[in-house]
Amino acid sequence: MSVLSMLFQDFAARLCSTEFLQEARHADHPMAFSRCRKLPLATLVAIMLTGMRMSIQAELDTFFAHLRQQAQLVHEVSEQAFAQARAKLSLTAIPGLNDWLIKRAETDGFVPRWRGLRLVAADASTVRFGLRASHVKRAALADQILFGLFLPGPDLMLAASLHNVHQCGERQFLFEHLDLLSPDDLLLLDRGYPCRWLVAVLNHRAIKFCMRVDNASGFTCVRTFMHSKALEQVVTLPAPNKPDALDYECPRKPQRVRLVRNASPSGEQRVLMTNLFDEEIYPAECFAELYHKRWGIEEAFKRLKHRLNLEHVTGLSQQAVAQDVAAKIVCDKLQAIVALTAHADAEAL
Predict the structure, then answer these.
(1) Helix locations, 108-191, DSSP H
(2) What range does the domain containing 265 cover?
(3) pTM
(4) Is residue 169 part of a domain?
(5) Which listed site, 84, 203, 205, 214, has its alpha carbon 20 to 30 Å from 141?
(6) Is there a contact between 71 and 65 (Cβ–Cβ < 8 Å)?
(7) For residue range 294-324, what is the model confidence (pLDDT) as tens digits?
């Protein structure tokens, strides 16, 4: 049996397992999915993972037609039944499947290493969901921010979360996800992230990073370096201020970082900041290719929005919107794994 066949077989078994049943039940519905109904848990989740783009009833009728292997649509479950069933699904159920797939991709060798490190890009994107005015309980806001941690090699979303546009910015969202990273990860960040407290937090937690900085970053040492002709330089950043050090539990000490000059394909001069100091393992020339890999998360957001129609949702509550986003991320991940397997099979021929 092929690796892909085994993965989908195990994934199906996961959906039908008692363990997943316990995880998938909403706290308000501890006995959900116990009785035999037309829309059991595994079927409900499978429908959501198809990347629903049409009306709910059209998606349901098409899904059950495919199950029966016939071209004519099958009206087996109503839109109201779907809404009632998904209300009993916990918010952690589908993200838990995402975590399971990440672990499986690691086990099956789909996640490569860059000089021994797993690359993880972080970024956020504004989304505007197609919601109508409603009075449903805990109604979702149309405008939200989707933050993601992304594995750019295999094109897999490691984790994602939705946030109010009026909440703290992307640095705060990243801070809330740092527990998912390990010393074997290398975090890739764009120019909106550099600040004193974040560098101190990453160094304190032994998380490797490479982030772009520019004149607007507020660092005098960066401006001095940009006006010099040096290819690279080790500099010391000022210590975080006292409120930030207390809020983010990081040492209030100056931080050593390495600055590397890099030119974009268009000739634009860029400066990358990193805590990778070993010039033999990480020569200055390797950072151009490394930073370019961060672009994968930009393409992932574009793919989710346009190919999977991320902003089309099947419910008006925040719970429904979060479930839809999580389901489309898992759908995208399954497609990515199929593509990785196809490439590996083609190279083996």
Answers:
(1) 170-175
(2) 191-293
(3) 0.92
(4) no
(5) 84
(6) yes
(7) 999 999 999 999 999 999 999 999 999 999 9
The structural domain count of the chain equals 1
Query: Which of 145, 156, 170, 114 minimizes the C-alpha distance to 287?
Result: 114
The two tokens of residue 330 are 């898992």
Strand blocks (E) in the chain: 118-128, 143-151, 156-164, 185-189, 208-213, 232-237, 255-263, 269-274
Q: What is the pLDDT of residues 147-178, one digit of tens each?
A: 999 999 899 999 999 999 987 789 999 999 99
d(CA 86, CA 135) in angstroms, rounded, equals: 19
In a domain, 232, yes or no: yes
The residue among 191, 272, 265, 199 whose CA lies nearest residue 231 is 272
The answer to whether residue 98 sits within a structural domain is: no
What's 168's DSSP letter?
-
- The pair phi, psi for residue 156, each rounded to 5°, is -120, 130
Alpha helix ranges (H) inside 252-317: 287-292, 295-306
Q: How far apart are CA 41 and CA 50, in angstroms?
A: 15
